[in-house]
Write the structure tokens for this entry.
Amino acid sequence: MKVSDVEVWYGKVRAVSDISLEVNKEEIVGLVGPNGAGKTTILKAIIGVVRVAKGEIIFENERLNDFETHEIIKKGIAIAPEGRQLFPFLTVEENLLMGAINGEAWGKRLETIKFVYSLFPRLSERRNQLAVTLSGGEQQMLTIARALMAKPKLLLVDEPSLGLAPKIALEIYKLLEKLRNEGITILLSDQNARRVFEISDRAYVVENGRIVMQGKSSELKEDERIRRVYLGL
Ligand SMILES: Nc1ncnc2c1ncn2[C@@H]1O[C@H](COP(=O)(O)OP(=O)(O)OP(=O)(O)O)[C@@H](O)[C@H]1O
Ligand SMILES: [Mg+2]
């Protein structure tokens, strides 16, 4: 997936500009940056929730700009959104099925749900429980699991560790690694730069709507400014 020179506006306010980034097959790529930097906006542009005013987004040799979100999902991209956005009064299993509502995924839902439960045994045990009764960590798992129900090749994950205890956040990150080992490519946004650098192959630093640094995560985490601003070292 390749994003080239993308710009997004909310009304008269330009949220991001000059955004160019690439996510290669089976990579985990990180997006880090402070509150309001534009991370979520970039993910929303890729999945077609916000319109791109300039630039283009290419996925598997196809330009995504003019497609609607449900069409983009069918092409193989899914999102585990910031703030989770579960259906609180549906069960775990009903939430999962909502993730498969698009096109071909519906026909394969029973097979996919088995796969998802094998990755998330905790969700399997709680399949008949209402989403609202899950713990924060379990809700985050359900958010990712629901996105997987669309059988994505590229998974966008927005702030998966927000509000979670460090131990639970680690568990979520372990799961993301497992997904990558299952062949899923991941673009991960998180304010917690330390965690992102641990898990990702490469990362982009977003500040004030622009990418200000990029590189291998192993190198970024040694950078003097990154250590000071993002890692508190
Ligand atoms: N629907 C909207 N209408 C107007 N402005 C918006 C809207 N959504 C986001 N913005 C603005 O766009 C900018 C980028 O926001 P965005 O949510 O992409 O940042 P972020 O990096 O994801 O932040 P956070 O780490 O807090 O999630 C911010 O200035 C924000 O106020
Ligand atoms: Mg955000």
User: Anything to note?
Assistant: DSSP finds eleven helices and ten strands in the chain. The pocket of magnesium ion (ligand 2) is lined by residues 39-40, 82, 158-159 (CB under 6 Å).
